[in-house]
Amino acid sequence: MNKSQNVRKPTLSDSNFDLYRRKRKPTLSDSNFALRVLIGHVNHLINLARQRELREYHIPLRQYEILSMIHDLGSKATAAEVAKEVERKVNSVTRQAVLMEKDGLITRVQNSTSSKLLRLELTRRGIDMIKLARKSKSLDTTFSFLSTEERQQIESILNRMLINLKKPSKYQTYRPKVFDKQFGTKS
Question: Does domain 59-135 have CATH number 3.10.450.50?
Fold first, then answer.
């Protein structure tokens, strides 16, 4: 036998981290890192599938997120509020709003005659786009193999993680108000 027959060939699931970890006993930090990488990878693949699906409607995923937030915020939707909720910079949301207005998905309306503040409102076309885009075959396919109990377990674990992330710490980031509404927590 030559040396190449004794060596296990790396597979697609191998990463430099996995190869390193096999040489010693994994620590809790290793496990946390591996779990974070796994969650990130799953999120990335779900987003890729969702992006491919949304292409059919000629709408980027980030634009869909902003449209949905405008819908959820209703009359309180301004570029600043939307930016806070989707954790983006105000100028990014403003640029997206200008493009969406050109596409006829939203209108930017002055709050009052004395105010420079612009409210973002969905047009009929924007509302129709959200209704179409919320029906997701990619998400249905992604989660179809889960039993009701498994789905509830995953939701419970992820909700607990979100709540834990919201607790004050030196690593804390801003948590949108929508989080409180959806998960029943308070800042």
Answer: no
Q: Report the pLDDT value the prediction gives residue 165, as an integer from 0 to 100.
A: 80
Give yes or no for a contact between 97 and 138, defined as CB atoms under 8 angstroms apart: no
**Domain ranges, ordered by start, for the chain:** 59-135
Q: 116: which residues sit within 8 A by CB, 6+ positions away?
A: 110
DSSP string covering 58-102: T--HHHHHHHHHHHHHGGG-BHHHHHHHHT--HHHHHHHHHHHHH
Distance, in Å, from the CA atom of 181 to the CA atom of 169, rounded to the nearest integer, reads 22
Query: Which tens digit of pLDDT belongs to each residue from 25-78?
Result: 778 788 888 889 999 999 999 999 999 998 988 888 888 999 999 999 998 999
Report how far residue 108's alpha carbon sits from residue 111's, in angstroms, rounded to the nearest whole number.
9
